[in-house]
Specification:
Two copies of one chain form a homodimer.
Chain A lengths: L1 E6 L3 H12 L1 H8 L3 E7 L13 E2 L3 H4 L4 E6 L7 H10 L3 E4 L2 H18 L3 E2 L10 H11 L2 E7 L2 H12 L4 H10 L8 H4 L2 H15 L1 E2 L6 E2 L7 H9 L2 E13 L2 E12 L11 E8 L3 E8 L3 H17 L10 E4 L11 E8 L2 H9 L4 E2 L9 E5 L5 H10 L3 E9 L2
Parallel strand pairs in A: 1-2, 1-4, 2-3, 4-5, 5-6, 8-14, 9-11, 11-18
Antiparallel strand pairs in A: 7-10, 7-12, 10-11, 12-13, 15-17, 15-18, 16-17
Helix pairs in contact in A: 1-12, 4-5, 5-10, 7-8, 13-14
């Protein structure tokens, strides 16, 4: 008998409780273990539910109950989630969480505590909903040397960008449609400004580096500056625009971690990931590229991922050693030395000529320019940020309307 | 200290030994366990190797050594691999294998033995090389209800089909190119006739069904009948041709398991998987679709998957309960009741008219017909195999040149 407590009876929390209730028999059959929900922490009134008797408003009813073996934290936010999880670990309970903010900000500390107490802290549901990204990555990390991680990790922005590309919608219209379909929250700023992707890539980067990567140290750009015009130009050259979270390990001076829009070849594995789907590309020295994709959100998939972690708590006696990183902050390389191609859209008198003068001859101009306004779009050769700045200074009488890196 | 013995020093076997030797320190750091190769079974002369002292020609040197905890079987073939693995399990050793023939034919028996003796039999490398297909599937199986598995599981045939589609090569030329690039063996018949895919889908189907699915019970068709013309017609309608292994569970009368070429939408997740890449789509009731793809073969990726399994043997004390199926044979539904669309290519006088008369009006004729020879290609409405046969009998004065199902 393994007693579980669920902190928070929101979308994911109710999904977890319902899954354990409705699939208890199946779970028992498959795992040969008995898993049940003993307590649910939520101060709201759920007296109409068949399992109303399980609710409590007091965290101590859970923390002080020695029978409760696993605490599922699905409240979201940093406080009081952090304090509750910390206490649970201190009391020798394993914790399963879907809270990406908590794992990104406090993961190192909590994982250290879990290791010290010989319990587990699992967080599959915190990145990619029901897609087993964390599991696939930590398996890769055991036998392989990780070269790169690149992920489309936010369904809201991928939906918006896909609609801008495929249906030529404006950002605002696409956001409205995302809201209608339930893919965007009332306040979508964490999504569209890249913070959500940043938290997720920080979790993956911390795993990959073995040391903490804090969201505040990661250069993060959202998609609010991307226009349908940019999407159209990009497509004319065989690219789509994706909001990517990326980690490149083993560079000089440390790993590179970044979040921002990028031009990705349309026919590439990440270019194929459309609408609300998420995907992650894991490039290992031994295994080469592995891509894993699916719906990255939703009540049932996320709750399913939580159940998977609960089962792992019950079945595996040892915590996966690669599902860990230390509190020491990772040394991150700065990007200024990195040579990358850029997509640029400029406006001005004789823009093409000005661009050639500023960047040299080796430019790929994209078809479909709006000549009436003197607009040009082109791809630069690979160049550093400093070289780009210099070239932009040389770009006389032109205004830069769009600037997006090209994933090489 | 965990002693490993490797049976067979071929491509994969030497890869496993080299990885353990070259990455021993890293493995130790990451797993906090000490894994080393104690013995290698191979009768050939490897006296030039730095680790020549590890070789033996006698299996009993391995089976009778109580220090050897894990036996890695990478010999291939059924005999003596089966006898050796059986003995190893009987002696209380865990076994890791990359041998798909062994797992497809004898998996149930060996898994039963492993469970009885409290040891593990892991086989990640038997399907999809370094891509963690088995792991992802068995995780899905714990918390989810599996609806469908569909996989591009053979790199050789996917490479050939991709070249036929993208470069308009004939089957023979594409096969030659695959051989040149090392993607096809001297005798490619197991690949191109679908047997390799059949063994792999049987392993996945057995896991999904919990009961054995024998290769001899699965309708298997290869790709030797596919022509560049079919590829061209398919593409004109937005499809590509893939050799698929498929499992559909929970149908009336049992699961459906099949291997054969199919038209797949070009822009779909499986349609995007090109060249020597493999992919598997896992459709769960809770999680929805998960796609995982990567290079499905090669010395290093396959050896990496074996190392991953070795690490799991060392770290996890309990065998994953869903990595098991019973010896009882799965009840498989026959396909005759299944309504599917078909792609047909026919030749004859007034072929279009004949087709309309035989199949009714609801046909999608594909552009690009070679009118000079009276050829027509079209997609039928969804129909059963029996209805198709009846319609084909009504198809007067026409010869059927191509017939491929459309994945719906």
């Amino acid at each position: 008998m393994h007693a579980v407590a669920v902190l928070g009876h929101g979308v994911v929390g109710s999904g977890v409780v319902e899954l354990i209730l409705s699939r208890g028999e199946t779970l028992r059959e498959r795992t040969r273990e008995d898993i049940f929900v003993k307590r649910i922490l939520d101060i709201r009134d759920f007296s109409h539910l068949s399992y109303a008797g399980l609710f409590t408003g007091k965290i101590d009813d859970i923390l002080d109950d020695p029978e409760i073996e696993i605490v599922v934290e699905v409240m979201g936010g940093l406080s009081p989630a952090f304090e509750y999880v910390r206490e649970a670990l201190l009391k020798g309970k394993s914790v399963v969480t879907s809270n990406k903010e908590l794992v990104a900000e406090k993961g190192a500390q909590l994982l250290g505590l879990a290791r010290e107490r010989g319990v587990k802290l699992l967080f599959e549901a915190s990145v990619g909903g029901g897609i087993p990204l964390i599991r696939t990555l930590h398996q890769s990390l055991v036998a392989d040397d990780l070269v790169e991680i690149a992920g489309v990790l936010n369904g809201t922005t991928n939906f918006i960008l896909t609609r801008m590309i495929q249906s030529k919608m404006t950002f605002e219209d696409a956001l409205c449609l995302a809201r209608e379909k339930g893919f965007a929250e009332a306040d979508p700023s964490a999504d569209i400004e890249g913070l959500d992707t940043c938290r997720k890539i920080c979790i993956l980067a911390s795993m990959a580096c073995g040391k903490n990567v804090s969201p505040q140290n990661v250069k993060t750009e959202g998609i609010t500056g991307v226009t349908p015009k940019d999407a159209l130009y990009a497509r004319s050259a065989g690219y789509v625009i994706k909001l990517l979270g990326e980690v490149r390990t083993a560079g000089p001076g440390g790993s590179r971690v970044s979040v921002g829009p990028a031009l990705v070849p349309e026919a590439s594995p990440l270019g194929c990931v459309c609408d609300e789907f998420n995907a992650i590309l894991i490039r290992g020295k031994i295994t080469g590229d592995i891509l894993i994709s699916g719906r990255g959100a939703g009540k049932e998939p996320t709750a399913g991922a939580v159940i998977g972690d609960i089962v792992q708590c019950v079945l595996d006696s040892k915590a996966p050693p690669t599902l860990f990183w230390s509190e020491e902050e990772s040394e991150l390389a700065d990007f200024s030395a990195l040579e990358e191609r850029r997509y640029l859209r400029i406006e001005g008198k004789e823009a093409a000529k000005a661009a050639r003068e500023a960047f040299g001859g080796d430019l790929s101009f994209l078809p479909g320019q709006d000549k009436t306004v003197g607009e040009e779009a082109f791809l630069t050769p690979p160049m550093t940020e400093a070289a780009l700045c210099e070239a932009l200074e040389r770009l006389k009488d032109c205004r830069v309307l769009g600037k997006i890196r090209v994933r090489g």
